[in-house]
């Protein structure tokens, strides 16, 4: 309790330090979405500066989230010169509200040319400022949005804030229809469970692939992987427990509600989950979590890997985006209550969400599309690339009742029958969970399980907020015109439950049969980031985002270009890294070992023609034939990578990297991994999977 939030310019700090009128005005902006008074900003800036200096900070930065997916910051000191050659510590309202970073050096998708450098960061007062520590140095970080000189969003934060605004507006329209006159704001809330790997730094430093790409491009399977299922929820190793302790301390100081931690399925894999927070703050906090994980790991001589698939053959990492909605007066709009069949407001919102996921499944799939995530979606370790909704027994039964036009019951959970008298008796939940579902209802929230472990959760939540706002808008348009509200509502719910039943699936999402069944239902199965990006250029997507003022056509086109460009760049880096490792690590090791074998064979035969050297000869033949194959595949990869890099159309280039370069990489890896199983371990130049996964 003493350390939580000590490095955050929190509500408690503002209440203590700001004049009452200033504090009240700022709270109105934060809670009601009212415009910010410039005079308020001046007072807040001075108070924020004093607080930061007292803590030991000398610099401030506008902390923003460009389209790179990570955060960015440019530091300025508080000092200003005086006429007598001294300095004073100043921080004005203007400096708080506006910053001016170079907009041309961040991904813009053509919005800004190289020579057009001006961009602006604008203070997001709804997310608290905080002090970030690097090497013992504290810097005041001010969460901001990032826009171009011409007004387009160049970041992840701006569209997120826009989507939260429209969600509130449209959700309130529905609430008014059900007689709610007290709630004035609806806010989406998120809890982002973060999966990650830890490896010993000495192994990381010997792996160029981990250093440059975040994943192993070569590596034969360990004799043991995750097949014994002995790592999941297992006891923490001392070194990992110490890391988690320090991680929690650092996060709690920054006001991050880190709550749950445990071993994940794969060896060397772990998870951290926070308590729910307002979506934009939760997004900021998840960026802080990822950044802090990396820094704390280094203090423990480890490296945190956030790539979705750092090790082939074992489970990769994702990020479970738990999404819900709450009113400003404390109502969780996804709480079904004890008798959800009687809760018509909840059923209306539930039907709207199901319809939105069905109508905009391809947009939702795109929101979780990254090059790394292409490795894991549908790989029996993550939800399939097919979007579906899991409601569980209780709500699925209610949905069937809605299709019949009358809802009369809610299934209830039975008492747990453990068979042990001394165990406490309690009632089970009304439904089981489904870990294979990409979008699952889990009590009072939906869990979007497809999100990639390394990506910002802003993109997925922009889509969720926007598509739900759209269907809320459609429902409100229809119900507001109704002469008989109750009858119109029942007709709407029946129609929605019947028309969108195809998106509901409570079974095994990993099963091959589901792929066949989904095809019959007409559900899209988009397996790559390249194909997923196309939805951004669809006319219906542009109309959706422009209607709700979340993104305009230019901003959508820029994101299409950025996503394809980032895909191509990532695969290109991986291909070049493989080429380098094959040339300078694997081939020299193979040549050295083949020379040793040849010398051994010659020495044996010189000593006695009667001695059998067939084992050495067999090894040499196998080694040399694999080496020849590797060199052939290496030449192929070099050629196709050069060809792909020369293409100019963004989609054609990305498709080429996916269809040709990536396949050439896979062929080269087969030879490289086979050589690892042949070459003397003393000569093999790379840390093995067994070492990296089990030696923590």
From TrEMBL:
PROSITE patterns from the UniProt entry: GLNA_ATP (PS00181), GS_BETA_GRASP (PS51986), GS_CATALYTIC (PS51987)
Specify the protein name. Glutamine synthetase III
Superkingdom of the organism of origin: Bacteria
Specify the GS catalytic domain's residue ranges.
156-586
Can you tell me which family this protein belongs to? Answer: Belongs to the glutamine synthetase family.
The record places domain GS beta-grasp at: 58-151
Supply the SMART domains for this chain.
Answer: Gln-synt_C
Show the SUPFAM superfamilies listed in the entry: Glutamine synthetase/guanido kinase
InterPro entries recorded for this chain? Answer: Gln-synt_C, Gln_synt_N, Gln_synth/guanido_kin_cat_dom, Gln_synth_cat_dom, Gln_synth_gly_rich_site, GS_Type-3, GSIII_N
